[in-house]
């Protein structure tokens, strides 16, 4: 089965998605559910570099034996070792905020106290049904392996652009790049199978 084609399906699917999102937003207003405030902009510490990614995500995963799909927008701010990842629904409402640094990781959900644990991926999986490899992604978006474990990378023999990277059970396929220099990733597909449960993630970076 091809990986998620939600970004390329017709207007009818988009209309249904918008209708569902509007219904969910209306329900939240009626019930008075709290919403998450967007995270404050990251300010750079001395000597640290700030990376900022905005784009769209789609995730296909299994939960209770059923295949599920979710998608929306994301805003990723990386300041040195500190990462803040905001996941938004198609209408721009914040659904979750992930914060990670070398000392602590947490997940914030609307109307709930922040969740934390020794492994961010476990916290995300328990709360959302899927987990994004935030720690590794910051390096994979730079087209390099994360430190601390073995990584392999394949390149196009003509352009020397990376085509695939494998690390920690993840397969990262580099599907598209921005024009110009320096080389920057525009779209990557990630896949992993853990305990017989497949997980597929697509990230399309808009800026």
UniProtKB/TrEMBL annotation:
Any single GO BP term: protein transport
PROSITE patterns for the chain: PROKAR_LIPOPROTEIN
Location relative to the cell: Cell outer membrane
Top-rank lineage group of the source organism: Bacteria
CDD domains to which the protein is assigned, alphabetical: LolB
The family this protein is said to belong to: Belongs to the LolB family.
Gene Ontology cellular-component annotations: cell outer membrane
Pfam families documented for this protein: LolB (PF03550)
Name the record gives this protein: Outer-membrane lipoprotein LolB
Keywords: Cell outer membrane, Chaperone, Lipoprotein, Membrane, Palmitate, Protein transport, Signal, Transport
Subunit organization: Monomer.
Membrane topology label: Lipid-anchor
Alphabetized InterPro entries for the sequence: LolA/LolB/LppX, OM_lipoprot_LolB
Lipoprotein as UniProt keyword: yes
Signal peptide: 1-36
């Amino acid at each position: 089965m091809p990986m998620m084609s939600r970004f390329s399906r017709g207007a009818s699917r988009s209309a249904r998605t918008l209708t569902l999102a509007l219904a969910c937003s209306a329900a939240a207003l009626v019930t008075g559910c709290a919403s998450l405030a967007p995270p404050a902009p990251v300010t750079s510490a001395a000597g640290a570099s700030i990376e900022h990614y905005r784009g769209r995500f789609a995730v296909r995963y299994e939960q209770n034996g059923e295949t599920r799909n979710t998608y929306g927008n994301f805003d990723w701010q990386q300041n040195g070792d500190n990462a803040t990842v905001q996941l938004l629904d198609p209408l721009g409402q914040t659904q979750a905020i992930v914060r990670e640094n070398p000392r602590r990781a947490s997940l914030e959900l609307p109307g709930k106290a922040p969740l934390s644990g020794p492994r961010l991926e476990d916290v995300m999986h328990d709360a959302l049904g899927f987990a994004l490899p935030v720690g590794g992604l910051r390096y994979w978006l730079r087209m390099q392996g994360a430190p601390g474990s073995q990584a392999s990378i394949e390149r196009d023999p003509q352009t020397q652009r990376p085509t695939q990277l494998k690390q920690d059970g993840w397969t990262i396929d580099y599907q598209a790049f921005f024009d110009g220099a320096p080389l920057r990733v525009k779209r990557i597909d990630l896949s992993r199978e853990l305990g017989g449960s497949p997980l597929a993630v697509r990230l399309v970076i808009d800026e």
